[in-house]
Each structure stands twice: as C-alpha cells, then as structure tokens.
Amino acid sequence: MATTQRQIDLLTGNEAVSAAVKQIRPDVIAVYPITPSTHIAEMLAQAVDAGELDSEFVKVESEHSAMATCIGAVAAGGRAFTATASQGLLYMAENIFWAGYGRLPMVAAVVNRALAPGWSIWVDHQDTMAMRDAGWGQFYVKNNQEAYDTVIQAYKIAEDHNVYFPFMVALDGFVLSHTASPVEFLTQEEVEEFVPPFNPLFRLHPSEPMSFGAISKPDEYIAMREDLMKSMERAKKVIQDVNIEFAKKFGRDWGGLIEVVGPEDAEIGIVTMSTLAEEAEVAAEQLTKEGMSTSVTRIRSFRPFPGEELAKQISKYDIAIVIDRAISFGNAGQIYIETNSALRDYDVDTKLIGTVMGIGGQDIAYGDIIERVKNLTKKA
Amino acid sequence: MVKLKELIEIEATYVGNMKGNLACAGCGLNLALRHALAALDQHALLVVPACCTSVIQGFGEGYGINAPVFNSAFAASPAVASGFARVYKKKDPSVQVVVWAGDGGTADIGLATLSGAAERDEDIIYVMYNNEAYQNTGDQKSGATPPGAVTTTSSGEKRPSKSVSRLMITHGVKYVATANTAYPLDLYDKMKRAYEEFRGHFRFIEIYAPCPAGWNVDPRYTAKVGKLAVETGYWPLYEAVDGKITLSRQGRRFLDPEKRKSLEDWLALQGRFKKIKPEFLEALRQDIDHSWEFVKKHMAE
Lengths: 380, 301
Ligand SMILES: Cc1ncc(C[n+]2csc(CCOP(=O)(O)OP(=O)(O)O)c2C)c(N)n1
Ligand code: SF4
Hints:
The complex is a heterodimer. Chain A is an alpha/beta fold. Chain A folds into two domains: 8-250, Rossmann fold (3-Layer(aba) Sandwich), CATH 3.40.50; 258-379, Rossmann fold (3-Layer(aba) Sandwich). In chain A, 43% of the residues lie in helices and 18% in strands. Chain A has twelve helices and 15 strands. Chain A has helices spanning 13-24, 38-49, 63-75, 86-101, 126-129, 144-159, 188-194, 218-250, 274-289, 307-314, 334-345, 366-379, and strands at residues 8-11, 28-30, 56-58, 80-84, 107-112, 137-140, 167-172, 181-184, 211-212, 258-261, 268-272, 294-299, 301-303, 319-324, 351-356. In chain A, helix 1 (13-24) packs parallel to helix 6 and helix 6 (144-159) packs across helix 8. By secondary structure, chain B is of the alpha/beta class. Chain B has one domain: Thiamin diphosphate (ThDP)-binding fold, Pyr/PP domains (Rossmann fold). Chain B is built from twelve helices and ten strands. Chain B has helices spanning 4-13, 28-39, 52-56, 77-91, 103-108, 111-119, 164-170, 184-197, 212-215, 222-231, 263-268, 278-297; strands spanning 44-48, 69-71, 96-101, 124-130, 150-151, 154-155, 175-180, 203-208, 238-241, 244-247. In chain B, helix 4 (77-91) runs parallel beside helix 6 (111-119). The two termini of chain B are 22 Å apart. The interface between A and B is large, with 41 and 47 residues. Strand 9 (211-212) of chain A pairs parallel with strand 2 (69-71) of chain B, so a sheet runs across the interface. The structure holds thiamine diphosphate and iron/sulfur cluster (SF4). Iron/sulfur cluster (SF4) is lined by residues 23-24, 27, 29, 52, 56, 131, 135, 211-214 of chain B. Residues 23-24, 27, 29, 52, 56, 131, 135, 211-214 of chain B line the site of iron/sulfur cluster.
C-alpha cells in the first residue's frame, strides 16, 4: 500500500464530506439546503448534473422529505445519503426515528449548529444531541480528514449485517464545515474494496408481498427494540474492527470508539468531543508542561456509547473534566450525564466534573480550556 | 371499458385485500383498494401513511393486503415513494410505486410533500381515497370535509372543501382522475390507464370512498351513497391529461343540472348531514357549482 499515490487537497469539511460521498456512490441523495451544510448539497447536485456521479439526486421540498426519500430508497434496497444541520435535523426528526427504529442503514452528515430561537448559525451540539435516542449511530469528528474517513467507514459499519442501523457523522459548523485543511483521499479502488456493495437484509418488492411497520403487538414491539439494543452493542466491536482495518490499510487511526491523546500516566483527564477535543489536546500539552499532567479522552462514537472503554480510561485519572457543547436543560451536559452513569456501572470512583463550553458558536481556544480546567480542579 | 364479468374474474384470480381484514362493514376504502390493486396486475408496491389503511391491513403476520406495504410517517408518503421509485427505476422498472393515502394525509398534513413529488414528476401513482374526514382517529374534520357535515370537531362549517384534484390539475400533473367506489369499472379503467399509459409520470387519482362508520350511514348503503354523490352532481367523474379535462362516460350527463338528482334525498341517507342548516346547504350547493365551473373551464375542446 505504501506505493499507492494518493491525492491530497485543501478541503473544507463540507468538501471532505462530499468527496467521500462521491466515492461511495449512493443510489439516492436527497438533501434540502440549510446553513452551514448547504455546500454539500450543491456540490453533490453539481456532480450529478455534470455526469460525474451516477446517483439520483432528489431535490426535495423539505428535510422531512429528504429523510423520507432516503427511507424509501433503503427499503428498496438502495444506498442513500443526506446532509443537514440544526433546524433541518429537527424538522427531519419524525423520519430520523423512522429510519432508526426501522433499521434502514444509511449515512447522514450533520453539520452541527445551534438551535433557535435566538438565530445562530454557529456550532453547538444541541441538534444532534436531541436525536441521540433515535436508534442511529453517532460519530463526532475532530477534523476534516476524519470527516472524510468517517463517512466512508460509516457506510461500511452501518451496512454490516451485525449492525444494520443508520449513522450520523457530525462535524462542527464553520469550524470544520467552512475551514480548509489538507485531506488525503483514498483512491476509488480503495474505497470500493473497503466498502463492498450494499447487500440489503431485506427490501420490499412485489415478488414477495410483506408489510413494513404494520401494527405491532407489545411483545413484537419489544423484540424489535431489544434487537436494536443488541445491535448497538455489537456495533462497538464492528466500529473498532473497521477502525483497525482502516488504520492498517490507509495509515490513519481515529481510535475507534474513543481516542486518547496525551501522557499515559496523566492525572487529569479532559473528556470531550469534536473540535473541542482537538483544542483540548493543545491545552493538555500546555498543562502537562506546567506540571499538571493531562490527557484528552475524545468520544468519537457517542452512539453506541462506549461506557466500558470510557470507564476504563477514566479510572486511570485522579480527576476528569467533561466538557459538553450542549445541555439537557434541567439536568446537565449529555456527555457528563452518560459518562457519570458509566463510571457507576463499572465501579470507577474517579472524581468527575461537568462543564459546558462553546454553545451558540462561542469561540473556544485552548487557552479557555486551560483556564477552565485550572479553575475546576482548584475547586475540586 | 372493462366488463363487469371480466372484473369479477380478475378479482377472483388476484385478491388484493384478503378476507378478514380489519375494515368496518361497508367500508368504501376497502372496495377502492380491491379494485385498484386488481388494475395494477401485481406490480404495485404501496406506501401508506397513517390512516385507516394502516389499520385495515392488520398485524404483521398473515396480514390483509396481498401487496408489499411500506407504512410511512403521516406526512411522508410521497417522499418515501420517491425514494422507492428512484431506486426501482434503475433496479427493477416493473415495480409500480403507489401512495395510498386518506384525505387528511393528502389535503392537510402531507400537502407540501405531495406538491413536491408532483412538481418533480416522480414516477408514482398517488391515490387519495376521500372519506372526507380523519377517520382513523374517529371522524375529525379535515380540509376535505364538505360544508355542513358534522364531525367530532365541527358542527358543520360553511367553508368549501379543499379539492386536491383541482390543485393537482393546476400543478401541471400529467394525469389526474376522479373516481368513486360505486363505479368500480370506471375506477378500474382509470387505475389501469394511469398505470399503462402514463408510466414515468406523477399520476393522481382521487377516489370518493364512503365511510359508513364516520358518516353515520347504514353499511348497506355504501354503494347507494357513492352513486348518488355522482348523480347529484356532487362528485364529477373526470380525467385530466395535461390539464385538459374529459368527463367520464359514466356520470357525464350530470354536467346538466337538470339531470341531477335531489341533493336533500342524498344527504338524508347520511347522519352527518342530518340537521344541516339552510346556510350550510347553500354553501354546499355553491361548492358544487364551483367545482363544475372549474371542470367546464378546463374541459378539452
Ligand atoms: C404526525 C402525526 N400526527 C397525527 C397522527 C394521528 N393520525 C393517525 S391517522 C390520522 C387520520 C388520518 O386521516 P386520513 O388521512 O383522512 O385517513 P383516514 O383515517 O380517513 O383513512 C391521524 C390524525 C399521526 N399518525 N402522525
Ligand atoms: S372508519 Fe370508515 S374508512 Fe375507516 S375502515 Fe371504517 S368504514 Fe372504512
């Protein structure tokens, strides 16, 4: 593999996502424009118009219909893609659950953006957090290269018969979507070899009349939801395996479920996601230099939630600070709530402190994180 | 036109909706489904939003419809159907994707979705069976409820009902037709024509489907009530190709108001119009006039 000449381009996050989608070649792409994800729709529509991409591009009249169209496409045995953000994701919500509970594997790129009112086009994670119980996998990426790689991985994982549910790839609005950085491509052959053609477990067809989603009695209903829960469990291994295979073949390791960056014996842990994690890496380096040995534990897969892996990692710290970019009003940040529960499940007694940073697009630099960590550890 | 004997034979060989499904006695929608599926020659794939059809198909195992059914979210069917149609266009063009939806799902919550699919000219047959209210949830007023009809959320209103057929004609839909469960031969022919002649386009068929349970009609009179809807001039039967209306052979004569039967006699069969006030009756008459004016204006030369 070392001899393969791979193209490297300066790409924004949106460009990285659409580059990956072009190589994945979905049967159906259905997108409705919304800032900051619109560029993805434009680039894919143009590629279809120009004949570079042999997908059906459906110019739907709403996000609700974008997701509905993807649902129909997958139930017909096709591969589907959509992209959205913020209000668009909420407008899709009914069908997001339909795809998740209906076990229709597909990939949606969600460019994280704050929710109105108080119009804000900038990043926070309230939109995807609102969808965390929809039966979708959720990856949160830290840079454009990971966005590209993860869209490709997500198809492979979602379509795996041991997994078989849809995935969101979440990338921070503007910070990634509109900011260019170098992205190395896989060749078309590599993508096709890595992600084999979609082999649907079922599809609706007149040759075998059956009903999808008919009235279900409680026992049948429970069986379907238990199956989803088990598939989420199984997906953890698949996500790790796919990450390892990808790293071996293409040289990039994103950690699978979680990624730890910093000294092995760090006493302080920063637990967070997305671009805040990359910023936290710089903060941790600085703090370590100053004598506060710190590492970053980045949650890459929020669904399925890597409770065991997190608990194991956090058990090595004396104290861990969880930084959320969203809030469950009336309680706390979602990452904090879930991490806290994982620590109990695995009898870890590391001190855990939750904090919220960067909502509504508030700019967070590593200096802000250093200051927050110092303040919180002082109090603790 | 298909002969009665032929239709009986066709429906004996292929039963679209099986015996023992969960429809109420005398259900018009159930009849509509039977005739429509027969016309589609076992190529139909149904996308069904929340409505009575999601109930009458029954539970998953041994269920009551002999065609694949995708049950979709209430407002989502035309878009779900678009996804199916786009994939089968390439993978198996023999599949005919059909949306099978009620008036509420069509005229109200799903209107934008319908409009989008129509505008994109998706390769779909959209059937709106019109039982003139939200029947699944127990007869609440929909946009297609006629003036004067009592529902559980209205004691009769003056507003004209929303005609989605007319809306589809002005949307530039290739083929639009109205049908009625009391005219099975006409219904069958229109489904067949939509399927065979206008493949590749968006097609819209609105079927008048009396609902004895919601309308407070004796189940014996489903066909009678349906027939009178045409004979009173309330339900014009027509086809529109590229916006040009042709009246159907059955029912054509009711273009002439002189030939129409008594509106009051027809209303008397339906509990929902029992105590209709004169002002509502007047509104209903105006609604009928308005729909014929539209028909005349758009009639092919
Ligand atoms: C988003 C949403 N809102 C409300 C409902 C509840 N609901 C289910 S069926 C129905 C009425 C359907 O009426 P119509 O489309 O006229 O079909 P019919 O039941 O008369 O056959 C309603 C309101 C729903 N399923 N989904
Ligand atoms: S409520 Fe009306 S439309 Fe629904 S199944 Fe009963 S008769 Fe048919």
